[in-house]
Design a protein that fits this description.
With 222 residues, this protein is an alpha+beta fold. The protein is 41% helix and 10% strand.
Length: 222
């Protein structure tokens, strides 16, 4: 009994000593901080400025939706554009007045791809709406050379590409498309198109490689 009491008293004394040492260390740190900072003056509550973050710029969301709807509605599945497609490998396309070497450069990967979209697994109307939104966003970001993946149709009935001809038809009806060509093998081959869009000047030329390598305002290549 006596040993137990002695041990309990010793443990209590040790605990008190540790607590005192911690309080002394905290007080030393407080004093050191006060010396380092120097004299301070508390601000009055009414003198404090309320610094609210600036509001984000307004986004014309309805206008974007209207533009996308208008672009989508102008793309018809009934329009015959076969006469506009060049009868080469992949049925490429270029606007009247556009140099023939533009299509050759597209096919050879002369310009860096600045964005891409994948239409795999989408139904016709979904693909058309998605592609219309992608073109609109690419134009807004200043992207000139983009890739559209429509697939090779391996998962479609009869293993025939369902979207390939439709995507070609839609893009040929889009005034913002200067030209397109089937992608090279490493870029998707028969399952993708490389598309050249108009720039701010609307001139029928592709972006120079040094221009295309720079990320456009609002984001880099995807």
């Amino acid at each position: 009994m006596r040993d137990a009491l002695t041990r309990a008293a010793r443990e209590a004394a040790e605990a008190e000593a540790r607590a005192l040492a911690e309080r002394q260390a905290t007080e030393r740190q407080r004093l050191q901080f006060a010396i380092a900072v120097g004299p301070v003056t508390m601000l009055l509550a009414e003198a404090r400025a309320e610094l609210a973050p600036p509001p984000p710029p307004p986004v014309a969301r309805q206008r974007e939706l209207d533009e996308q709807a208008a672009l989508r509605e102008t793309w018809s599945d009934e329009v015959d554009v076969e006469s506009l497609l060049l009868t080469d490998d992949g049925l490429s396309f270029r606007r009247p007045g556009v140099n023939a070497d533009v299509v050759i450069r597209l096919r050879r990967g002369h310009w860096a791809i600045q964005g891409q979209t994948d239409l795999h697994g989408l139904r016709r109307d979904e693909a058309r709406e998605h592609l219309a939104g992608f073109v609109r966003d690419a134009l807004r970001r200043g992207q000139r050379c983009v890739r559209v993946v429509h697939g090779k149709g391996h998962g479609s009935p009869g293993r025939t590409p369902v979207l390939k001809a439709r995507v070609q038809r839609w893009l040929a009806q889009c005034d913002e498309v200067i030209a397109f060509a089937q992608a090279s093998g490493p870029e998707g081959g028969a399952g993708a198109l490389i598309v050249l869009l108009v720039g701010n000047s609307r001139r029928a030329r592709g972006p120079r490689r040094d221009e295309a390598a720079q990320p456009p305002p609002g984001g880099g290549p995807t």
